[in-house]
């Protein structure tokens, strides 16, 4: 039964639907950007002759900035107002998009992506806080679910739109497409959101903010280079240990601060801990899959960007439909049951991908994409709503920022981990096939072969490295089989993560009373 809106609520939440459209555009910016850039990565890698490790930085530097600053921007939103913080975030993201669009080299793209990440840190954390704050409590589940529908629409349109843009206009328009969306979002939020003045008693501990950002950068740098250096090299160990120590020291420091950046009390809540674990497993899985799938479709199977986008609609279309369903379930039963159901569906999808043969099977791949798409829609809508509702009322921006910061750290780890695993397994498989050929005089080194057998660059261009044309057909088969073996190893990791998420959902038992819908 629908609860009627009172006259007082009607006045207070008068422009909520208009605002929701503006906030939805903010989410569309994020998700259009992610899906379009993923489809542009194979082209960017080809244009700038990039390795898989370098392409990972295009995504990971964005996630590092976004995740490393999310807690800080959450605090800034609590102090100076969520509306103002979001508008600054969208503006900074727009500037980063322009920087990347005119980049003459890969490193300028990475700089632009960092600026984009800073802007998104100020945008993403504010979207759901503003959405729930402008709706009466009986409509908050609906509002969050509509936000996720915007996400789903962007991820549904993103692959097809991104493929067409990259194929016909070029990779620079993958960044320029953000400009009109940003401007429209700014206009709507400016006109319809209430001018919340924030709470000047909320303090932002900037040293902690800086340390968290550096820790994120150090840890992700280590993961990005481990495929080249190995786990036991000082090049990996030093930044990894330094980042871990910085993060641990920063967390310990919070206990002695009068106004900490991170509220450690949240970690003692069984519900919040369960949300962190289930979302972490999900983000590693989805982040790595969304990164590796376009490389597989475009550079290994030789699909055009537009065709690859159409294939990815299988997953993103299911995401869109499940988001709508999640809204109805969350309004009626609360977000926790949907999260548990999502774990079972995600586990099933991972099983299907694990059983996919070494060579491409559309039945297994498409079925797995359907189940993953449904899982994503349920997880985004339900975990975001639960994270907002479990947060203390006076610290919703900071608490939700902590939750999202954590999820994007694991998203970035998923991308780095996928690169490491696919590289390691693909190298071993390729060498098992091509050992005799690779030892001949004039044969390429494994470092030269690596970008092609990992999907960073088109596989057919590997032929230029082998002067003996009689082995060309064999080299293509070896390269394709090498990538497939790395892809299959990644699917085994997905199955393990899905099982961990399924077990972690047991932490939700008898915790629904901790959700605050006011």
- Average pLDDT works out at 81
List the helices and strands in order.
HHHHHHHHHHHHHHHHH
The N- and C-terminal alpha carbons lie at a distance of 19 Å
Radius of gyration: 23 Å
The number of strands is 0
Give the CA-based shape: globular
Number of helices: 17
Q: Major sheet, described briefly?
A: none
Low-pLDDT sequence parts: none
* Helix percent band: over 70%
Strand content: under 5%
Question: Structural class, from secondary structure content?
Answer: mainly alpha
Overview of the molecule:
By secondary structure, the protein is an all-alpha fold. It has helices at residues 7-12, 16-47, 52-80, 82-101, 106-133, 140-168, 173-176, 178-192, 206-229, 234-253, 270-300, 305-333, 335-354, 362-390, 396-438, 446-453, 472-504. Helix 9 runs antiparallel to helix 10. The radius of gyration is 23 Å and the shape is globular. The protein starts with 6 loop residues before the first helix and ends in a 14-residue tail after the last helix.
What topology does this entry show?
Blueprint: H1 7-12, H2 16-47, H3 52-80, H4 82-101, H5 106-133, H6 140-168, H7 173-176, H8 178-192, H9 206-229, H10 234-253, H11 270-300, H12 305-333, H13 335-354, H14 362-390, H15 396-438, H16 446-453, H17 472-504
């Amino acid at each position: 039964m629908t609860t009627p809106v009172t006259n007082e609520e009607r006045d207070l939440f008068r422009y909520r639907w208009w605002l929701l459209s503006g906030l939805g555009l903010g989410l569309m910016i994020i998700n259009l950007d992610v899906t379009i850039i993923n489809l542009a990565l194979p082209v960017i890698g080809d244009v700038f002759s990039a390795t898989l490790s370098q392409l990972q930085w295009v995504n990971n530097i964005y996630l590092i900035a976004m995740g490393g600053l999310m807690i800080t921007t959450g605090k800034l939103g609590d102090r100076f107002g969520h509306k103002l913080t979001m508008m600054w975030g969208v503006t900074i993201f727009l500037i980063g998009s322009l920087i990347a669009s005119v980049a003459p080299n890969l490193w300028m793209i990475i700089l632009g992506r960092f600026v984009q990440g800073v802007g998104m840190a100020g945008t993403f954390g504010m979207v759901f806080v503003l959405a729930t704050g402008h709706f009466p409590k009986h409509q908050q589940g609906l509002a969050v679910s509509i936000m996720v529908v915007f996400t789903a629409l962007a991820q549904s349109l993103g692959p097809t739109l991104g493929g067409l843009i990259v194929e016909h206009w070029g990779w620079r328009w993958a960044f320029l497409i953000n400009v009109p969306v940003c401007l429209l979002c700014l206009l709507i939020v400016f006109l319809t959101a209430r001018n919340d003045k924030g709470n000047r008693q909320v303090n932002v501990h900037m040293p902690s903010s800086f340390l968290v950002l550096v820790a994120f950068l150090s840890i992700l740098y280590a993961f990005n280079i481990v495929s080249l250096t190995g786990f036991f090299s000082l090049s990996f160990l030093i930044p990894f240990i330094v980042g871990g120590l910085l993060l641990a020291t920063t967390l310990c420091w919070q206990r002695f601060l009068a106004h900490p950046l991170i509220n450690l009390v949240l970690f003692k809540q069984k519900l919040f801990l369960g949300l962190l674990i289930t979302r972490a497993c999900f983000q590693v899985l989805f982040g790595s899959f969304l990164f590796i799938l376009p490389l597989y479709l475009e550079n290994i199977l030789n699909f055009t960007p537009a065709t690859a986008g159409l294939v990815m609609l299988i997953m993103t279309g299911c995401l869109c439909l499940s988001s709508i369903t999640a809204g109805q379930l969350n309004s009626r039963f609360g977000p926790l049951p949907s999260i548990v159901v999502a774990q079972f569906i995600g586990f099933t999808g991972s099983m299907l991908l694990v059983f996919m043969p070494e060579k491409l099977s559309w039945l297994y791949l498409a079925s797995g994409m359907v189940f993953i798409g449904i899982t994503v829609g349920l997880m985004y809508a339900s975990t975001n709503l639960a994270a907002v509702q479990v947060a203390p009322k006076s610290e919703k921006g900071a608490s939700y920022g902590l939750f999202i910061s954590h999820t994007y750290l694991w998203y970035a780890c998923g991308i780095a981990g996928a690169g490491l695993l696919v590289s390691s397994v693909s190298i071993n498989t390729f060498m098992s096939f091509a050992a005799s050929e690779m030892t001949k005089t004039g044969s390429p080194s494994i470092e030269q072969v690596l970008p092609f057998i990992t999907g960073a660059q088109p596989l057919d261009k590997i032929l230029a490295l082998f002067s003996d044309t009689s082995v060309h057909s064999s080299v293509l088969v070896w390269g394709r089989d090498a990538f497939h073996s790395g892809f299959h190893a990644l699917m085994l990791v997905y199955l393990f993560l899905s099982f961990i998420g399924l077990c972690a959902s047991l932490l939700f038992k008898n915790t629904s009373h901790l959700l605050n819908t006011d």
